[in-house]
Amino acid sequence: KAGVTQTPRYLIKTRGQQVTLSCSPISGHRSVSWYQQTPGQGLQFLFEYFSETQRNKGNFPGRFSGRQFSNSRSEMNVSTLELGDSALYLCASSLATGGDTQYFGPGTRLTVL
Amino acid sequence: AQSVTQLDSHVSVSEGTPVLLRCNYSSSYSPSLFWYVQHPNKGLQLLLKYTSAATLVKGINGFEAEFKKSETSFHLTKPSAHMSDAAEYFCVVSEVVKAAGNKLTFGGGTRVLVKP
Lengths: 113, 116
Known about the structure:
The complex is a heterodimer of chains A (about 110) and B (about 120).
Chain A lengths: L4 E3 L2 E4 L5 E6 L6 E8 L3 E9 L2 E5 L6 E5 L5 E5 L8 E8 L8 E2 L3 E5 L1
Parallel strand pairs in A: 2-11
Antiparallel strand pairs in A: 1-3, 3-8, 4-5, 4-9, 5-6, 7-8, 9-10, 9-11
Chain B lengths: L2 E4 L3 E5 L4 E3 L1 E4 L4 E8 L5 E7 L5 E3 L5 E5 L4 E6 L8 E9 L8 E3 L3 E6 L1
């Protein structure tokens, strides 16, 4: 079974631009969660989508948003990019929600100049 | 609220010697606990998971972890380190409450260096 895939793997953007990252979960998984990893803040939870509904949200500004499609694929969007948004963005999928094991993709490395 | 503290930010071991990575947690509900490993420029790989079935959990690549409720600890061990174990390790807690959704809380990570 194929693992979690994320596209693109690398992105370079400039301040003020917006960006969309994509995540395809493991086949049959209905929950997709997003995390931001930075050297200073470590790994932080962004949000979770389950059956096309946002179930849970971390402590990030409204510039960070996401959605999930009927095939469970998910996208996250960051608008008005700031230098501090430079990070590795990780997507994880699980069969269900509520503490189920999450399997991670390789991440998208976003650099904001 | 849940939180995780990894007691060592860096651990250095010699190849063939035991590895111990320490983790303490707090959680309002019965938690699920995980250890993940991240090799350089890679995503996170699941090593093992605790879900209350047994206090000693065996994972991949010879790793195991022991859940101690009285000490709120979930330490990770391996009897004999290999060069390929050099990576960053994360202790993670997730509350097993359906209404809470899936939200993982990560420790700060322990970077393991293996010396030949």
